[in-house]
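so i finally got all the pieces together for this one. its two components total, 525 residues if u count the protein bits. some of the lines might not be protein, just check the labels. i wanna see the whole assembly predicted at once instead of chain by chain like last time, that was a mess tbh
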Amino acid sequence: MVRQTLRQSGTLVFGYMLSLLVVLAAWQYASSRAIVPMLLPSPFNTLKVGVGLWESGQLLSDIEASVLRIAAGFAAGCAVGLPAGLLMGSFQPVRQAFEPFLHFLRFLPALAWIPAAMMWLGTGEDAKIALLAYATIFVVTLNTMAGVAAIPRNQIRAARSFGATRWQIFLLVAVPATLSYMVAGMRLAMGNCFQTVVAAELVASDSGLGFLIFSSRRFMQTEIAYVGIAVLGTIGILTDLLFQLATKRLLRQYVLQPNH
Amino acid sequence: MSTGGVAAAMSWRNADFQFAPGTPLILKNFSLEIRPGEFFLLLGPSGCGKTTVMNIQAGFEQVVRGEVLADARAVRGPGRDRAVVFQDSDSLYSWLTALENVEFPLRVAGIAKRERREQAHKALRMVGLETHEHKYPSELSGGMKQRTQLARALVLDSPILLMDEPFAALDAQTRTILQDDLVRISMRTKRTILFITHDIAEAITLADRIGVMTAGPESAIKEIFEVTLPRPRRRGSPAFGELYDRIQAILADEVQRALRREDSL
Protein backbone atom coordinates (compact mmCIF):
# COMPACT_ATOMS: atom_id res chain seq x y z
CA MET A 1 0.00 0.00 0.00
CA VAL A 2 2.76 2.43 1.10
CA ARG A 3 4.94 1.29 -1.80
CA GLN A 4 2.06 1.87 -4.22
CA THR A 5 1.45 5.40 -2.84
CA LEU A 6 5.17 6.19 -3.09
CA ARG A 7 5.25 4.90 -6.66
CA GLN A 8 2.21 7.04 -7.55
CA SER A 9 3.79 10.14 -5.96
CA GLY A 10 7.06 9.44 -7.77
CA THR A 11 5.26 9.16 -11.12
CA LEU A 12 3.45 12.42 -10.42
CA VAL A 13 6.66 14.31 -9.53
CA PHE A 14 8.43 12.81 -12.55
CA GLY A 15 5.55 14.05 -14.76
CA TYR A 16 5.79 17.56 -13.34
CA MET A 17 9.59 17.65 -13.75
CA LEU A 18 9.35 16.40 -17.31
CA SER A 19 6.76 19.05 -18.20
CA LEU A 20 8.94 21.76 -16.57
CA LEU A 21 12.00 20.60 -18.52
CA VAL A 22 10.05 20.67 -21.79
CA VAL A 23 8.87 24.24 -21.09
CA LEU A 24 12.41 25.35 -20.16
CA ALA A 25 13.83 23.73 -23.29
CA ALA A 26 11.19 25.44 -25.43
CA TRP A 27 11.98 28.76 -23.72
CA GLN A 28 15.71 28.27 -24.30
CA TYR A 29 15.09 27.43 -27.96
CA ALA A 30 12.74 30.43 -28.49
CA SER A 31 15.20 32.84 -26.85
CA SER A 32 18.07 31.56 -29.03
CA ARG A 33 15.92 32.29 -32.10
CA ALA A 34 14.66 35.67 -30.92
CA ILE A 35 15.51 38.53 -33.26
CA VAL A 36 15.87 40.92 -30.33
CA PRO A 37 17.34 38.73 -27.51
CA MET A 38 16.52 41.37 -24.92
CA LEU A 39 12.79 40.74 -25.44
CA LEU A 40 13.12 37.12 -24.46
CA PRO A 41 16.18 36.40 -22.32
CA SER A 42 17.15 32.74 -21.93
CA PRO A 43 16.23 30.81 -18.80
CA PHE A 44 19.93 30.45 -18.03
CA ASN A 45 20.49 34.23 -18.12
CA THR A 46 17.32 34.78 -16.09
CA LEU A 47 18.55 32.34 -13.47
CA LYS A 48 21.94 34.04 -13.40
CA VAL A 49 20.32 37.45 -12.79
CA GLY A 50 18.05 35.88 -10.18
CA VAL A 51 21.02 34.44 -8.29
CA GLY A 52 22.69 37.86 -8.40
CA LEU A 53 19.57 39.53 -7.00
CA TRP A 54 19.39 36.89 -4.26
CA GLU A 55 23.04 37.32 -3.31
CA SER A 56 22.66 41.08 -3.15
CA GLY A 57 19.72 40.61 -0.76
CA GLN A 58 17.34 42.61 -2.94
CA LEU A 59 15.23 39.63 -4.03
CA LEU A 60 14.69 38.45 -0.46
CA SER A 61 13.69 41.94 0.71
CA ASP A 62 11.25 42.27 -2.22
CA ILE A 63 9.78 38.84 -1.50
CA GLU A 64 9.42 39.79 2.15
CA ALA A 65 7.70 43.10 1.31
CA SER A 66 5.20 41.48 -1.07
CA VAL A 67 4.46 38.49 1.15
CA LEU A 68 3.84 40.71 4.19
CA ARG A 69 1.49 42.94 2.19
CA ILE A 70 -0.38 39.93 0.81
CA ALA A 71 -0.67 38.40 4.29
CA ALA A 72 -1.98 41.63 5.82
CA GLY A 73 -4.40 42.39 2.98
CA PHE A 74 -5.63 38.80 2.78
CA ALA A 75 -6.17 38.62 6.55
CA ALA A 76 -8.02 41.95 6.60
CA GLY A 77 -10.15 40.90 3.61
CA CYS A 78 -11.05 37.57 5.23
CA ALA A 79 -11.80 39.29 8.54
CA VAL A 80 -14.44 41.36 6.74
CA GLY A 81 -15.54 38.92 4.02
CA LEU A 82 -16.18 35.80 6.12
CA PRO A 83 -18.54 37.37 8.70
CA ALA A 84 -20.15 39.48 5.97
CA GLY A 85 -20.87 36.38 3.88
CA LEU A 86 -22.22 34.47 6.88
CA LEU A 87 -24.44 37.32 8.00
CA MET A 88 -25.69 38.12 4.49
CA GLY A 89 -26.35 34.44 3.82
CA SER A 90 -28.12 33.83 7.12
CA PHE A 91 -30.17 36.96 7.69
CA GLN A 92 -32.35 38.36 4.94
CA PRO A 93 -32.42 42.01 6.13
CA VAL A 94 -28.60 42.08 6.14
CA ARG A 95 -28.54 40.54 2.65
CA GLN A 96 -31.07 43.07 1.35
CA ALA A 97 -29.09 45.96 2.80
CA PHE A 98 -25.70 45.01 1.37
CA GLU A 99 -26.21 42.75 -1.65
CA PRO A 100 -26.65 45.56 -4.25
CA PHE A 101 -23.36 47.16 -3.14
CA LEU A 102 -21.62 43.81 -3.15
CA HIS A 103 -22.65 43.16 -6.75
CA PHE A 104 -21.74 46.69 -7.81
CA LEU A 105 -18.31 46.60 -6.23
CA ARG A 106 -17.32 43.09 -7.26
CA PHE A 107 -17.21 44.19 -10.91
CA LEU A 108 -14.68 46.89 -10.13
CA PRO A 109 -11.09 45.62 -10.08
CA ALA A 110 -8.72 46.76 -7.34
CA LEU A 111 -6.79 48.55 -10.08
CA ALA A 112 -9.69 51.02 -10.50
CA TRP A 113 -9.34 52.01 -6.84
CA ILE A 114 -5.61 52.80 -6.92
CA PRO A 115 -6.04 56.59 -7.38
CA ALA A 116 -8.77 56.77 -4.73
CA ALA A 117 -6.76 54.59 -2.32
CA MET A 118 -3.72 56.83 -2.74
CA MET A 119 -5.76 59.98 -2.16
CA TRP A 120 -7.46 58.59 0.95
CA LEU A 121 -4.67 56.55 2.48
CA GLY A 122 -1.51 58.05 1.02
CA THR A 123 1.23 56.23 -0.83
CA GLY A 124 2.36 54.07 2.10
CA GLU A 125 1.51 50.56 3.18
CA ASP A 126 -2.11 51.32 4.15
CA ALA A 127 -3.22 51.94 0.57
CA LYS A 128 -1.56 48.74 -0.71
CA ILE A 129 -3.03 46.60 2.09
CA ALA A 130 -6.46 48.14 1.54
CA LEU A 131 -6.29 47.24 -2.17
CA LEU A 132 -5.31 43.66 -1.32
CA ALA A 133 -8.12 43.45 1.24
CA TYR A 134 -10.50 44.72 -1.45
CA ALA A 135 -9.31 41.98 -3.81
CA THR A 136 -10.07 39.40 -1.10
CA ILE A 137 -13.40 40.52 0.33
CA PHE A 138 -15.81 39.91 -2.53
CA VAL A 139 -14.72 36.42 -3.49
CA VAL A 140 -14.75 35.35 0.16
CA THR A 141 -18.12 36.99 0.83
CA LEU A 142 -19.79 35.54 -2.26
CA ASN A 143 -18.44 32.04 -1.64
CA THR A 144 -19.49 32.12 2.00
CA MET A 145 -22.96 33.30 1.00
CA ALA A 146 -23.18 30.47 -1.53
CA GLY A 147 -22.15 28.06 1.24
CA VAL A 148 -24.96 29.25 3.50
CA ALA A 149 -27.44 28.91 0.63
CA ALA A 150 -26.25 25.34 0.03
CA ILE A 151 -26.91 24.15 3.60
CA PRO A 152 -29.42 21.29 3.32
CA ARG A 153 -32.80 22.61 4.49
CA ASN A 154 -33.25 19.54 6.68
CA GLN A 155 -30.15 20.46 8.71
CA ILE A 156 -31.77 23.76 9.65
CA ARG A 157 -35.15 22.12 10.22
CA ALA A 158 -33.60 19.45 12.43
CA ALA A 159 -31.91 22.12 14.55
CA ARG A 160 -35.20 24.04 14.83
CA SER A 161 -36.99 20.89 15.94
CA PHE A 162 -34.37 20.46 18.69
CA GLY A 163 -35.33 23.93 19.92
CA ALA A 164 -32.21 25.72 18.65
CA THR A 165 -32.37 29.52 18.66
CA ARG A 166 -31.48 31.50 15.52
CA TRP A 167 -28.12 32.29 17.06
CA GLN A 168 -27.44 28.62 17.85
CA ILE A 169 -28.40 27.66 14.30
CA PHE A 170 -26.00 30.32 13.01
CA LEU A 171 -23.09 29.20 15.18
CA LEU A 172 -23.61 25.45 15.34
CA VAL A 173 -24.98 24.78 11.85
CA ALA A 174 -24.42 27.66 9.41
CA VAL A 175 -20.76 28.31 10.31
CA PRO A 176 -19.46 24.70 10.24
CA ALA A 177 -21.65 23.76 7.26
CA THR A 178 -20.18 26.65 5.28
CA LEU A 179 -16.51 26.12 6.14
CA SER A 180 -15.67 24.22 2.94
CA TYR A 181 -17.10 27.10 0.87
CA MET A 182 -15.18 29.63 2.96
CA VAL A 183 -11.93 27.77 2.36
CA ALA A 184 -12.61 27.54 -1.40
CA GLY A 185 -13.31 31.30 -1.46
CA MET A 186 -10.12 32.00 0.49
CA ARG A 187 -8.05 29.97 -2.01
CA LEU A 188 -9.50 31.94 -4.90
CA ALA A 189 -8.98 35.20 -3.03
CA MET A 190 -5.34 34.31 -2.38
CA GLY A 191 -4.85 34.12 -6.16
CA ASN A 192 -6.49 37.53 -6.52
CA CYS A 193 -4.08 38.94 -3.92
CA PHE A 194 -1.05 37.74 -5.87
CA GLN A 195 -2.43 39.42 -8.98
CA THR A 196 -3.28 42.62 -7.16
CA VAL A 197 0.02 42.95 -5.29
CA VAL A 198 1.81 43.62 -8.59
CA ALA A 199 -0.65 46.40 -9.45
CA ALA A 200 -0.43 47.86 -5.94
CA GLU A 201 3.38 47.90 -6.04
CA LEU A 202 3.54 49.48 -9.48
CA VAL A 203 2.43 52.75 -7.99
CA ALA A 204 4.49 54.75 -5.51
CA SER A 205 6.48 51.83 -4.19
CA ASP A 206 10.15 51.13 -3.69
CA SER A 207 9.91 47.50 -2.67
CA GLY A 208 8.14 44.28 -3.51
CA LEU A 209 8.07 41.88 -6.43
CA GLY A 210 5.68 44.16 -8.35
CA PHE A 211 8.18 47.00 -7.97
CA LEU A 212 11.02 44.67 -9.06
CA ILE A 213 9.13 43.64 -12.21
CA PHE A 214 8.20 47.22 -13.08
CA SER A 215 11.62 48.70 -12.32
CA SER A 216 13.30 46.39 -14.86
CA ARG A 217 12.00 48.57 -17.68
CA ARG A 218 14.26 51.44 -16.65
CA PHE A 219 17.47 49.75 -17.79
CA MET A 220 15.75 47.40 -20.22
CA GLN A 221 16.72 44.50 -17.92
CA THR A 222 13.99 42.11 -18.95
CA GLU A 223 15.71 39.27 -17.04
CA ILE A 224 14.69 41.02 -13.81
CA ALA A 225 11.05 41.11 -14.88
CA TYR A 226 11.17 37.37 -15.62
CA VAL A 227 12.83 36.71 -12.26
CA GLY A 228 10.01 38.63 -10.52
CA ILE A 229 7.33 36.76 -12.47
CA ALA A 230 8.89 33.34 -11.79
CA VAL A 231 9.35 34.04 -8.08
CA LEU A 232 5.82 35.42 -7.66
CA GLY A 233 4.29 32.41 -9.42
CA THR A 234 6.40 29.98 -7.39
CA ILE A 235 5.46 31.63 -4.10
CA GLY A 236 1.83 31.50 -5.25
CA ILE A 237 2.01 27.75 -5.86
CA LEU A 238 3.79 27.15 -2.54
CA THR A 239 1.26 29.27 -0.65
CA ASP A 240 -1.59 27.33 -2.23
CA LEU A 241 0.04 24.01 -1.31
CA LEU A 242 0.58 25.21 2.24
CA PHE A 243 -3.02 26.40 2.41
CA GLN A 244 -4.29 23.02 1.22
CA LEU A 245 -2.08 21.15 3.69
CA ALA A 246 -3.20 23.35 6.58
CA THR A 247 -6.83 22.93 5.56
CA LYS A 248 -6.50 19.14 5.39
CA ARG A 249 -4.84 19.00 8.77
CA LEU A 250 -6.87 21.55 10.74
CA LEU A 251 -10.31 21.41 9.13
CA ARG A 252 -10.39 17.79 8.02
CA GLN A 253 -13.87 16.96 9.28
CA TYR A 254 -15.36 20.13 7.83
CA VAL A 255 -13.73 20.18 4.42
CA LEU A 256 -13.01 16.60 3.52
CA GLN A 257 -16.34 15.03 4.41
CA PRO A 258 -18.40 14.79 1.23
CA ASN A 259 -21.91 16.09 1.76
CA HIS A 260 -23.52 12.62 1.86
CA MET B 1 -61.57 9.35 14.43
CA SER B 2 -62.07 9.89 18.15
CA THR B 3 -59.50 8.84 20.70
CA GLY B 4 -62.20 7.53 23.03
CA GLY B 5 -62.17 10.24 25.68
CA VAL B 6 -58.36 10.30 26.07
CA ALA B 7 -56.69 13.58 25.01
CA ALA B 8 -55.16 13.00 21.59
CA ALA B 9 -51.38 13.20 21.24
CA MET B 10 -51.85 14.79 17.82
CA SER B 11 -55.05 16.32 16.59
CA TRP B 12 -56.16 17.95 13.34
CA ARG B 13 -59.49 19.71 13.05
CA ASN B 14 -60.81 20.83 9.64
CA ALA B 15 -57.37 22.04 8.60
CA ASP B 16 -56.70 23.62 5.20
CA PHE B 17 -53.24 24.16 3.82
CA GLN B 18 -51.85 25.89 0.76
CA PHE B 19 -48.27 26.91 0.02
CA ALA B 20 -49.18 30.49 -0.98
CA PRO B 21 -52.36 32.55 -1.35
CA GLY B 22 -54.04 31.88 -4.67
CA THR B 23 -52.51 28.42 -5.09
CA PRO B 24 -54.59 25.20 -4.81
CA LEU B 25 -55.32 23.81 -1.38
CA ILE B 26 -53.01 20.88 -0.70
CA LEU B 27 -55.07 19.75 2.29
CA LYS B 28 -58.76 20.52 2.76
CA ASN B 29 -60.83 19.85 5.84
CA PHE B 30 -58.13 17.53 7.10
CA SER B 31 -59.15 15.95 10.39
CA LEU B 32 -57.29 13.30 12.34
CA GLU B 33 -56.77 12.21 15.94
CA ILE B 34 -53.78 10.15 17.00
CA ARG B 35 -53.88 8.48 20.40
CA PRO B 36 -51.09 8.76 22.94
CA GLY B 37 -48.56 5.95 22.52
CA GLU B 38 -50.01 4.98 19.15
CA PHE B 39 -47.97 3.98 16.11
CA PHE B 40 -49.91 5.74 13.34
CA LEU B 41 -49.03 5.22 9.69
CA LEU B 42 -50.13 7.73 7.07
CA LEU B 43 -50.41 6.26 3.62
CA GLY B 44 -51.46 7.84 0.37
CA PRO B 45 -50.82 8.17 -3.35
CA SER B 46 -47.77 10.12 -4.52
CA GLY B 47 -48.19 13.88 -4.23
CA CYS B 48 -51.20 13.69 -1.89
CA GLY B 49 -49.47 15.77 0.78
CA LYS B 50 -48.25 13.16 3.26
CA THR B 51 -44.97 14.97 3.85
CA THR B 52 -46.88 18.24 4.14
CA VAL B 53 -48.88 16.71 7.01
CA MET B 54 -45.63 15.83 8.76
CA ASN B 55 -44.13 19.27 8.11
CA ILE B 56 -47.22 20.93 9.57
CA GLN B 57 -47.24 18.64 12.60
CA ALA B 58 -43.52 19.36 13.09
CA GLY B 59 -44.24 23.10 12.92
CA PHE B 60 -42.24 23.76 9.73
CA GLU B 61 -45.42 24.86 7.90
CA GLN B 62 -48.64 26.46 9.18
CA VAL B 63 -52.23 25.65 8.23
CA VAL B 64 -54.32 28.48 6.77
CA ARG B 65 -57.54 27.34 8.45
CA GLY B 66 -58.54 24.93 11.21
CA GLU B 67 -56.24 23.79 13.96
CA VAL B 68 -53.40 21.40 14.57
CA LEU B 69 -52.58 20.32 18.11
CA ALA B 70 -49.78 18.41 19.76
CA ASP B 71 -50.56 17.21 23.25
CA ALA B 72 -53.61 19.55 23.31
CA ARG B 73 -51.47 22.61 22.50
CA ALA B 74 -51.68 24.45 19.19
CA VAL B 75 -48.66 23.85 16.98
CA ARG B 76 -47.11 27.24 16.18
CA GLY B 77 -43.60 26.16 15.29
CA PRO B 78 -41.04 23.39 15.76
CA GLY B 79 -40.38 22.21 19.30
CA ARG B 80 -38.57 19.63 21.38
CA ASP B 81 -41.85 17.85 22.13
CA ARG B 82 -41.86 16.60 18.50
CA ALA B 83 -38.68 14.91 17.29
CA VAL B 84 -38.31 14.44 13.55
CA VAL B 85 -36.65 11.74 11.45
CA PHE B 86 -36.28 12.92 7.87
CA GLN B 87 -36.42 10.88 4.69
CA ASP B 88 -32.98 12.06 3.58
CA SER B 89 -29.98 11.56 5.79
CA ASP B 90 -28.71 14.99 4.72
CA SER B 91 -30.22 16.26 7.97
CA LEU B 92 -27.22 14.72 9.75
CA TYR B 93 -24.36 17.13 10.31
CA SER B 94 -21.54 15.91 8.09
CA TRP B 95 -18.80 17.48 10.23
CA LEU B 96 -19.94 15.64 13.38
CA THR B 97 -19.47 11.95 14.21
CA ALA B 98 -22.50 9.74 14.82
CA LEU B 99 -22.03 10.28 18.56
CA GLU B 100 -21.74 14.07 18.19
CA ASN B 101 -24.80 14.12 15.94
CA VAL B 102 -26.82 12.31 18.59
CA GLU B 103 -25.47 14.68 21.24
CA PHE B 104 -26.44 17.73 19.18
CA PRO B 105 -30.04 18.16 20.50
CA LEU B 106 -28.73 17.91 24.06
CA ARG B 107 -26.00 20.44 23.34
CA VAL B 108 -28.62 22.85 22.02
CA ALA B 109 -30.65 22.23 25.16
CA GLY B 110 -27.64 23.21 27.29
CA ILE B 111 -27.07 19.78 28.89
CA ALA B 112 -23.60 19.32 30.41
CA LYS B 113 -21.10 17.39 28.30
CA ARG B 114 -20.76 14.34 30.54
CA GLU B 115 -24.51 13.89 30.85
CA ARG B 116 -25.19 14.37 27.16
CA ARG B 117 -22.47 11.88 26.23
CA GLU B 118 -24.05 9.33 28.55
CA GLN B 119 -27.50 9.85 27.05
CA ALA B 120 -26.15 9.79 23.50
CA HIS B 121 -24.40 6.47 24.21
CA LYS B 122 -27.66 5.08 25.53
CA ALA B 123 -29.57 6.19 22.42
CA LEU B 124 -26.89 4.75 20.12
CA ARG B 125 -27.02 1.45 21.99
CA MET B 126 -30.78 1.41 21.55
CA VAL B 127 -30.43 1.56 17.76
CA GLY B 128 -27.44 -0.83 17.71
CA LEU B 129 -24.87 1.70 16.54
CA GLU B 130 -22.51 1.84 19.52
CA THR B 131 -19.58 0.35 17.60
CA HIS B 132 -19.80 3.03 14.90
CA GLU B 133 -20.17 6.08 17.10
CA HIS B 134 -16.90 7.70 15.99
CA LYS B 135 -17.66 7.51 12.29
CA TYR B 136 -18.73 10.52 10.26
CA PRO B 137 -21.99 10.30 8.28
CA SER B 138 -20.03 9.87 5.04
CA GLU B 139 -18.49 6.72 6.54
CA LEU B 140 -21.86 5.18 7.45
CA SER B 141 -24.13 3.07 5.26
CA GLY B 142 -27.66 4.29 4.41
CA GLY B 143 -29.16 2.13 7.14
CA MET B 144 -26.63 3.35 9.72
CA LYS B 145 -27.34 6.97 8.84
CA GLN B 146 -31.05 6.39 9.43
CA ARG B 147 -30.24 4.65 12.73
CA THR B 148 -28.21 7.73 13.70
CA GLN B 149 -31.15 9.95 12.84
CA LEU B 150 -33.41 7.73 14.92
CA ALA B 151 -31.01 7.83 17.89
CA ARG B 152 -30.82 11.62 17.58
CA ALA B 153 -34.61 11.81 17.63
CA LEU B 154 -34.86 9.47 20.62
CA VAL B 155 -32.25 11.20 22.75
CA LEU B 156 -34.47 14.15 23.69
CA ASP B 157 -37.23 11.97 25.14
CA SER B 158 -39.80 13.82 23.04
CA PRO B 159 -43.24 12.25 23.52
CA ILE B 160 -43.96 12.54 19.78
CA LEU B 161 -41.83 11.08 17.00
CA LEU B 162 -42.47 12.20 13.42
CA MET B 163 -40.95 10.05 10.69
CA ASP B 164 -41.11 10.93 7.01
CA GLU B 165 -40.48 7.82 4.91
CA PRO B 166 -37.24 7.18 6.80
CA PHE B 167 -36.59 3.80 5.19
CA ALA B 168 -37.67 4.67 1.63
CA ALA B 169 -34.15 4.88 0.24
CA LEU B 170 -32.89 1.67 1.86
CA ASP B 171 -32.56 -1.80 0.34
CA ALA B 172 -35.32 -4.30 1.22
CA GLN B 173 -33.21 -6.30 3.68
CA THR B 174 -32.00 -3.28 5.66
CA ARG B 175 -35.52 -1.86 5.64
CA THR B 176 -36.96 -5.04 7.19
CA ILE B 177 -34.29 -5.05 9.92
CA LEU B 178 -34.93 -1.38 10.72
CA GLN B 179 -38.70 -1.90 10.75
CA ASP B 180 -38.30 -4.69 13.34
CA ASP B 181 -35.97 -2.50 15.40
CA LEU B 182 -38.40 0.41 15.24
CA VAL B 183 -41.30 -1.73 16.46
CA ARG B 184 -39.13 -2.93 19.36
CA ILE B 185 -38.06 0.63 20.21
CA SER B 186 -41.58 2.02 19.97
CA MET B 187 -42.92 -0.66 22.31
CA ARG B 188 -40.10 0.01 24.75
CA THR B 189 -40.24 3.81 24.70
CA LYS B 190 -44.04 4.25 24.37
CA ARG B 191 -43.67 7.26 22.05
CA THR B 192 -46.52 8.39 19.87
CA ILE B 193 -45.32 7.92 16.32
CA LEU B 194 -46.60 9.49 13.10
CA PHE B 195 -44.88 7.61 10.28
CA ILE B 196 -45.31 8.60 6.64
CA THR B 197 -44.96 5.97 3.94
CA HIS B 198 -46.15 5.03 0.48
CA ASP B 199 -45.45 1.35 1.10
CA ILE B 200 -48.58 -0.60 2.12
CA ALA B 201 -46.60 -3.59 3.44
CA GLU B 202 -44.48 -1.31 5.60
CA ALA B 203 -47.64 0.32 6.96
CA ILE B 204 -49.21 -3.03 7.90
CA THR B 205 -45.95 -4.28 9.43
CA LEU B 206 -45.57 -1.27 11.72
CA ALA B 207 -48.92 0.32 12.46
CA ASP B 208 -51.45 0.24 15.22
CA ARG B 209 -53.66 2.19 12.80
CA ILE B 210 -53.26 3.22 9.18
CA GLY B 211 -54.78 6.41 7.76
CA VAL B 212 -55.22 6.36 3.99
CA MET B 213 -55.31 9.77 2.32
CA THR B 214 -57.22 10.77 -0.78
CA ALA B 215 -55.29 11.84 -3.89
CA GLY B 216 -54.31 15.50 -4.01
CA PRO B 217 -54.96 18.35 -4.26
CA GLU B 218 -57.44 19.03 -1.43
CA SER B 219 -56.45 15.79 0.29
CA ALA B 220 -58.05 14.51 3.43
CA ILE B 221 -58.19 11.23 5.31
CA LYS B 222 -60.30 8.76 3.33
CA GLU B 223 -60.31 5.78 5.67
CA ILE B 224 -58.63 4.56 8.82
CA PHE B 225 -57.74 0.91 9.38
CA GLU B 226 -57.18 -0.61 12.80
CA VAL B 227 -54.39 -3.17 12.50
CA THR B 228 -54.97 -5.92 15.02
CA LEU B 229 -52.62 -8.54 13.55
CA PRO B 230 -50.26 -10.02 16.15
CA ARG B 231 -46.62 -8.93 16.06
CA PRO B 232 -44.19 -9.69 14.56
CA ARG B 233 -46.12 -9.37 11.32
CA ARG B 234 -44.94 -11.13 8.21
CA ARG B 235 -46.17 -10.69 4.67
CA GLY B 236 -47.02 -14.36 4.10
CA SER B 237 -50.03 -14.52 6.45
CA PRO B 238 -53.56 -14.52 4.92
CA ALA B 239 -54.75 -11.72 7.24
CA PHE B 240 -51.80 -9.55 6.14
CA GLY B 241 -52.66 -10.23 2.48
CA GLU B 242 -56.33 -9.46 2.98
CA LEU B 243 -55.63 -6.10 4.62
CA TYR B 244 -53.03 -5.32 1.95
CA ASP B 245 -55.62 -5.93 -0.80
CA ARG B 246 -58.22 -3.73 0.89
CA ILE B 247 -55.82 -0.82 1.22
CA GLN B 248 -54.45 -1.41 -2.28
CA ALA B 249 -58.00 -1.19 -3.70
CA ILE B 250 -58.60 2.17 -2.03
CA LEU B 251 -55.26 3.54 -3.20
CA ALA B 252 -55.88 2.29 -6.75
CA ASP B 253 -59.27 4.07 -6.70
CA GLU B 254 -57.59 7.28 -5.56
CA VAL B 255 -54.90 7.09 -8.22
CA GLN B 256 -57.57 6.49 -10.90
CA ARG B 257 -59.56 9.46 -9.60
CA ALA B 258 -56.46 11.66 -9.75
CA LEU B 259 -55.74 10.52 -13.33
CA ARG B 260 -59.34 11.22 -14.41
CA ARG B 261 -59.10 14.67 -12.86
CA GLU B 262 -55.85 15.36 -14.72
CA ASP B 263 -57.41 14.19 -18.00
CA SER B 264 -60.39 16.51 -17.57
CA LEU B 265 -58.15 19.58 -17.08
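The longest helix of chain A spans residues 166-202.
The radius of gyration of chain A is 23 Å.
anyway lmk what u think
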